[in-house]
Amino acid sequence: MRIAALIDDIKIYMMKPKKNKSLLLSIIIILVSAWGTVYAQSGGGKLHAVVVGQDNSPLGAASISLLRSPGDIPLKGTLSKENGDIEFVEVPSGKYMMQVSAVGYTTYRSTEITLKAGAIMSLDTIRLQAETRVLGEAQVVGKKPLIESQIDKIVLNVENSVLATGNNALELLQKVPGVTLDNKKINLRGKSNVIIMIDGKPTYLSADEVSRLLENTASNSIASIEVLTNPPAKYDAAGNAGIINIKTKKNTQFGSNVSLNFNLGQGKYTKGDGGFLVNHRNNWVNLFASYNYQNSLGFNDLTIDRSVRDSVGTTYFNSDSYSKFRYRGHNFKFAADFNLGKQEVLGFVVNGNVSNGNSTRHGDNLIASEKGKLDSVVQGSNFSDFTYHYLAYNLNYKKTFDTLGTELTANADYSYSKNNDNSTVKNRFLDPNWAEFKLPKIFRNDMLSNTKILVFKTDFVHPFDKTTKLEAGLKYSRVKTDNILIYEDQNTAGEFVRNEKQSNQFLYNENIAAAYFTLNKSFGKFSVQAGLRVENTSSLGNSITLGQQTKRNYTDFFPTVFIQQQINDNHKLGLSYSRRIDRPDYGALNPFIYYLDQYTYQYGNPYLNPQYTNSYELNYTFKERYLLSLGYKRTNDAITQVIESNSETKAIAQTDRNLTYFDYYNMNINIPVKVLKWWTTSNNLTAFYSKYNFDERSGAQRQLEKLSFQVSSNHDIRIGETTNVELTANYFSPAVYGVFSFKSYYGVDLGAGKTFLDKKLNVKLAVNDILNTRGQRRLSSVQENGYYRIRNGYDSRVIRLSLSYRFGNVNIKSLDKRAGNNDEDNRLKK
Q1: 649: which residues sit within 8 A by CB, 6+ positions away?
Q2: Which of 288, 344, 562, 627 could disulfide-link 670, Cβ–Cβ 3.0 to 4.6 Å?
Q3: Angle CA(707)–CA(710)–CA(711) in degrees, nearest 5?
Q4: What InterPro entries has UniProt attached to this entry (predicted)?
Q5: Pairing label, strands 120-122, 45-52
Q6: What residues contact residue 750 under an 8 Å CB cut-off, 6+ apart?
Q7: Strand 652-658 vs strand 661-676: parallel, antiparallel, or unpaired?
Q8: pTM above 0.70, yes or no
Q9: CA triplet 427, 428, 431: central angle to 5 degrees?
Q10: What is d(CA 707, CA 711) in angstroms, rounded to the nearest whole number?
């Protein structure tokens, strides 16, 4: 069924006459040109050599470059075989130098080689020397600093550090400069909606699913974590919160391994999950498979206190409700890479989620014309259940041309999601004595949404030399969504009858074509990177029920600039600028009304415009360890959620509007401290000033602004080789977001872990939110004709037992990857 839909989509794409064919022709031209440029070399002779280490053992995977003399002009590149053999064929006659490098060894350069036409030459054995530096009488082997400030990102080098043991990837993120966790939700410098990548590939998971994935990823499998607060032009222009890229360790170990994991949590209710990961690698294929099942219970304790003022007077509402919900989810993934040659890989990925759940909500809404005087009560019950199906396919190709890093990648993605949500709402109407004075109102909502996403993407990277690199690429995406809402009222006979006025069907189609290039150049200790991304968006929103269509077609340019100066060994400065876009979620454009109860409803806004952000940032790094950053962002037409009050019906509505602008100033300081040999801390402070400017479009005519800060301190205590204790404390000050003001909150987490069986078995016991202070959130909003205050409680204090066991060859690199449709999938509401 899904394969047939994919074939139909590709047929439709190919049948469109001009725009799509010209785009496809452009992709083909770039691929052919890139291929031809690299291989347009004349035939000639042959060079052969063998490379060994200091102990005369063969060295495989050493990087070999053949340089034309004079000028050291790169001609060809390759990697040595496992037995140390090096071979260059079809080498034109001339003079050359051979350069050989490998991790942990000093770089070797040969004497000048003269090759005649058609000649076959065998060079002497090349013996590499171990790379060391002598300091006094101590011999120090080169090691990467813990924190690196690169021109377009901050890198935390986890590999071979104390951070690489005893943690999972989610815990490790708390040690990354500028990153904080709020109930396992990842924030970067005070902003949420961060894009999480693994080995440069988006995860395409919801916030909860990302948290579970990272909890099941051991920190000793991670090489480094990259933080991109201003992503360069190669990434989608969507999103202004930033990107976190987790890079796993790379090696060529063969064999198989299996990882089993089980987690059990107990708060007010029980929650648990478990699954497995399987890897297999040989010299021609790398396979990966994973499965995880989650079954959890949770609750939501919600209090809403609000007022609505009209010409007659003020009406007060106080609503208390309690929801209990269950979630069951199956996540699975299968991936394979096939080595077509030494430097050519073809792969595919199948990724899916099948989940279902249900919830019950009961509450009382007290209505009064004066405070302290009850006029009536609306007693509500809501019973709902949902099913969600998501399936995605990816086909990817990568070709590496030389040791300098020239490579071509191509991806094709197709995903299909189906979400079905049913709810039955019953409202009983009671007088001040809590006696029913009229018949209850019962209605039913049945929502069905389908989304298809098709994406083609190609990237080309070409380093001209060690100081100059060019990157370029193309991308095309097409999205189709179909949202259906069936609203039914219960009549006096107890039958449900469709209400056509409240039912709805909304279709949305969107096409985005993009191209980019980036040029990176170094001048000694000074580096500059400039890029430009161009995106054309055409969309059609069609409300079948209302007979209303909204068409759009616009082209945007997104420049990026990065400058970095290495002042000396201890001081480094960086400056960056980028322009980015955030398009509305697909469902946010649906204009029809969805009722939660008689006095609460929500609706979409088909006239929502994209928001555009200009971002500036200054970074300072001291001793490659301590970081200070200053940033400023202005977002025009900022999309934000607003609350509207209806003076006639006394109901409130939730929707999205474009604000005039949003200013965001931020400062981030990260200070890691090694208190003792066995006690290390990571301390982070983020201060930010938010200023929102409203107008008539936003439903409020005022300005909301506030200076806020977040502070966190993470302590890691090592007890021997197999035991560690971790304590995390954080505080979030009062803040504003859109038309809402948020109260402060804080929390403390404590955990202890121990490894057994030669570190194959890991056992961890942890308590989240020991003081039970994070689970009570408060926010408020002052409206033109009233006020709105919320208290929201959830299951935050949870004790968890986690078990994981790995067997087989644990050094095999996991093939957990994806590519292509990150921006499009992130706009799905999962």
Answers
A1: 599
A2: 627
A3: 135
A4: Beta-barrel_TonB_sf, Carb-bd-like_fold, OMP_b-brl_3, Plug_dom, Plug_dom_sf, TonB-dep_rcpt-like
A5: parallel
A6: 725, 726, 727, 728, 766, 767, 770
A7: unpaired
A8: yes
A9: 140
A10: 14
Decide: 567 and 573 in contact? Cβ < 8 Å. Answer: yes
CB distance 84 to 52 below 8 Å: yes
The DSSP H or E segment spanning 6 is helix 2-15
Q: How does DSSP classify residue 585?
A: P
Cα-flanking dihedrals φ and ψ of residue 631, to 5°? -140, 155
Residue type at position 576: S
User: How many whole angstroms separate alpha carbon 62 and alpha carbon 236?
Assistant: 34
Q: Which residues pair with 531 in a beta bridge?
A: 518, 560
Q: How far is CA 763 from CA 612, 720, 754, in A?
A: 46, 15, 5
Give the SS3 label for residue 501. coil
Of the candidates 269, 414, 294, which has an alpha carbon nearest to the alpha carbon of residue 355? Answer: 294
Which residues, 6 or more positions from 474, have their beta carbon under 8 angstroms from its beta carbon? 23, 26, 27, 30, 456, 457, 458, 513, 514, 515
* C-alpha span between 651 and 245 (Å, rounded): 44
Q: Hey, is 812 helix, strand or coil?
A: coil
Contact in structure between 537 and 583 (CB atoms under 8 Å): yes
Q: What share of the chain is helix, strand, coil (3-state, %, to 5)?
A: 10, 65, 30
Q: Which tokens is 377 given?
A: 């009560």
- Count the alpha carbons within 13 Å of 453 in the hemisphere toward its beta carbon: 26
- Cβ–Cβ < 8 Å for 591, 612: no
Main-chain dihedrals φ then ψ at residue 128, nearest 5 degrees? -90, 145
Of the listed ranges 100-104, 230-234, 272-276, the one predicted with least confidence: 100-104
**What is the rounded distance in angstroms from the CA atom of residue 701 to the CA atom of residue 526?**
47
pLDDT digits (tens, 9 = 90+) for 346-372: 999 998 889 999 999 999 999 998 888
480 Ramachandran zone, left/alpha/beta (phi>0; psi -120 to 50)? beta
CA–CA dist 510, 238 (Å, integer): 15
For residue 630, list its beta bridge partners: 618, 667
**What is the residue type of 443?**
F
Q: 40 falls in which pLDDT band (50, 70, 90)?
A: very low
**Residues 122 and 114: beta-carbon distance below 8 Å:** no
Q: What does the pLDDT look like over 702-730, one tens digit per residue?
A: 678 999 999 989 898 989 888 989 898 98
Dist CA 730 CA 706 (whole Å):
20
